[in-house]
Known about the structure:
This protein has a domain at 2-211: Rossmann fold. The protein has nine helices and nine strands. The protein has helices at 12-26, 57-65, 83-92, 99-110, 148-152, 182-196, 255-258, 265-283, 286-297, and strands at 2-5, 32-35, 69-75, 130-136, 162-169, 223-226, 229-232, 238-244, 247-251. The termini are far apart. Flavin mononucleotide binds at residues 7-8, 11-14, 75-79, 136-139, 144-145, 170, 172, 175. Residues 7-8, 11-14, 75-79, 136-139, 144-145, 170, 172, 175 line the site of flavin mononucleotide (FMN).
Amino acid sequence: MLGLSAGNPDGSAEILLKVALHAAEDEGAQVSLLRLDDLTLPTRPVGPVAVATEDDGAWLWDQVMESDGLIVSAPIYSRTIPGKLKLVADRLSGPAADVVFAENYRSMLQAGETPPVAFPYDERVFRPRVAGLIAVGGALTTQWRGLALPLMHQMMFSSNIAVADQLLVGGAGMPRAVVLDAAALVNAARVGRSVGSQLGRPFEQVEYRGEPGLCPLCHLSAVEIHGTAVECVTCGAAGRLSVADGQAVVAFDDPAGLEKSVIGLTEKREHFVEVQETGQIQGALAAEIERRASVYAQYERRITPGS
Ligand SMILES: Cc1cc2nc3c(=O)[nH]c(=O)nc-3n(C[C@H](O)[C@H](O)[C@H](O)COP(=O)(O)O)c2cc1C
């Protein structure tokens, strides 16, 4: 089991991660802590000729692929996650990590077909994985933390990693101050147990053990409202809004609405078909795309350091 530390070395996020990893060890997990500050990670993969010191992306990918579970712990920056964790999410998620892309590529390649849109795939994405999320901020008030956990889900849904628990902590204003917060330490241990005790379970059998939220799939409560229609900001599940006794009620009770969530395989399968169809349509227009795009390529106002 892998712990990803996205905070300052030995800071509050890393302390909560260590509490969680220790609790997971008590459940029998074999754990490692990976500090993002130890990685060299360019925004795009450096080609195969690169030496490892230029891009640790492939090594990071292998660490995740060889794990049965992960706990990600991050400080909250400007209401959300630090850029270095977003970069990790961008490098680890998307088509190359998507179980449905992998499933389709495998069957196309086995049938000797060429996929219209090609992405690398790794059979290890099918391995069941369980995750826990921890975000810790300095602020005491909720308006400084709303986008942290939603962004952390980005790392999980492509590879069908089941989030078993998540924790949002505030009030760690001074470096390492989370050690003063007994409840945060107890809850971080809960996250560790939730993950450590469920390693190896297939997605459908992983029990969610965190705080309940409005959405039954990601268990968070950030929603967009369009009239009486509601969409979960984190995972895209569709629900509805009504008013009862003067109170707004959000319900995700239609199975078809839940199938819209990117967490499920139904939406991932529809997305795969859409990507292939778009690839076919736009692939046939390659010359026209090139002709129109070259106009913008000629517009050159770029500056670079030292220019
Ligand atoms: C650039 C920056 C932005 C921050 N923004 C927030 C914020 O929006 N909400 C919050 O609660 N804390 C915020 N903080 C405080 C950190 O989340 C807090 O100090 C955290 O515990 C640091 O964890 P670490 O020691 O593990 O890095 C911010 C800190 C920095 C450096």
